[in-house]
Amino acid sequence: MNEPSPSTLRRDWPRLLLTLPAHHFSAALREIKEQCQVVDLALPQAGLALLQLRDGALAEPYFIGEIPLARAVVRVTDPEGRQSEGAAQIMDDRAGLARDIAICDAVLAAGLAGEELIHALLTQGTRLRAQIDAERGALLTRTRVDFSLLDGVSEGNDL
Amino acid sequence: MGYVAIRGGGTAIKGSLEALEALRAAEADEGTALSLNTIEHQLRLLTSRILSEGGLYHPPLAALAIKQMQGDTLEAAFALRAYRSTKPRLLTTPVQETEGMRVIRRISSAFKDIPGGQMLGPTTDYALRLMRLELADESPEVFRGIAARFLADTPSEALPQTFPKVVEALRRDGLLPASPPGQGEPFDITREPLVFPIPRSAVLASMARAETGSLLALAYSNMRGYGDVHPTIAELRVGYLPVLLPHPVTGEPVEAGEVLMTECEVVAMYESDEAGAVPVFTLGYGACFGHNETKAISMAVLDRALQKGMKDGPSNPSEDPEFVVLHVDGVDSMGFANHYKMPHYVTFQSDMDRLRTTQIKAEQKKSAQKKGQPE
């Protein structure tokens, strides 16, 4: 089976990184933080967000409940003086994890020093994501109803 | 008789909490503390229930609440709500469209050939209600191999993760009313008091975190005869909804995570329009966190009943928003029922005093009547 390539789209990065256990970040992030200067542009926070959905009957917005949310916005400057702003808003309780993902976002967005370390994380995340998708896909594939069999056996006698 | 002071209550309360904890661990040497992961996965439908009734999508904390409250769903939901009340709210999400749900189950009782097809997914609908006695003594080896075998036996066929909604097909065919997306700010039941009449968004939010059994009981009353909703399930879907938030730097929508949820649209009988418009079917909508089909269907039936009640006035309890919304919350109703366990010594003393006075007066009246009667 071919190794799936990690997405190059910025909107996909948090999803892929969040698939990994947080301790997978620690070594890579330690190295990046040692090399680069990281400044918080907003205080990393953890709390809740009110989740707003649109109902399927009358298309009206309503609140279904709350979700955990952590967020961070950072500016990263690498040893060559290149700068990039990164941010993360993730469904998690850990402001520190949001900050780590914001750093990854900044590094990847501008190709700063340490980019290859984050790419390795994205590759791991892509692999795990594909596994999760396969497991969910199996729930559909194995349970798809084939009504053509019903039609062939008892035409017009469906329940 | 006045206020009754109690001495020694603090010690008894401390002891009761220790007794509760002792029963949780009563297996002693043979026992193993339940891991949150075990609860979240092996009791996933129970966890789902707490997620929705607690109003907070946090599966590990819902599992912790179940463990802490020893399986009491009402207390577990209460604990989750208490937790959420201690956390700051950072933002309100933009409106999320559930067409983006990554589906694991999708059925319709309206059409067999729905666009994209029907997938039964994980369900007990077709399971025999016979006890599987082999589960009473399940070996760890067999248990660990079940999921892997399921995956290995699955043909590699790439199905889409998202599917079009059945109601949209009905809408395109002119069988449902056109529904331009509503733009108003929804009602936040966690911050604003419910003063009736309330908007539909408050009703939906209240039912989304209502107690499953309460919603079912009221919806059942309507289906059985105290109402007229005879629903057909246009679509029932279970899946993971990606939550998209604007990136703080680029503004582009980015996935913050995903929420397992159940969603249901029911079609009810059409209504003739007095204004002469073309008659169309009516719809009810239900949705909740987690996998809880009974709740989503019950909510959809009640939504339809309440729409009728709000329009024409209620003709039965399930069409009355005040009756439904104020009686389906598990934490509210459990709290009210259980508060009767608290000491009512003074009020009951007063009741007894009044009864004794009334008894004396009744005796006196009886005696007076006897004296006044001729021998």
UniProtKB/TrEMBL annotation, chain A:
Keyword field contains Ribonucleoprotein: no
Recorded GO MF terms: lyase activity
Keyword Lyase: yes
Domain of life: Bacteria
GO biological process: organic phosphonate metabolic process; organic phosphonate transport
Keywords annotated in UniProt: Lyase
NCBIfam families linked to this entry: PhnG_redo
Name of the protein this chain belongs to: Phosphonate C-P lyase system protein PhnG
Biological source species: Pelovirga terrestris
Gene (name only): phnG
From TrEMBL, chain B:
A family per Pfam: PhnI
GO molecular function terms noted in the UniProt entry: lyase activity
Record key words, sorted: Lyase
Superkingdom field: Bacteria
Record has Lyase as a keyword: yes
Presence of the UniProt keyword Lyase in the record: yes
A biological process term (GO) from this entry: organic phosphonate metabolic process
Name this polypeptide is given: Carbon-phosphorus lyase complex subunit PhnI
Organism name: Pelovirga terrestris
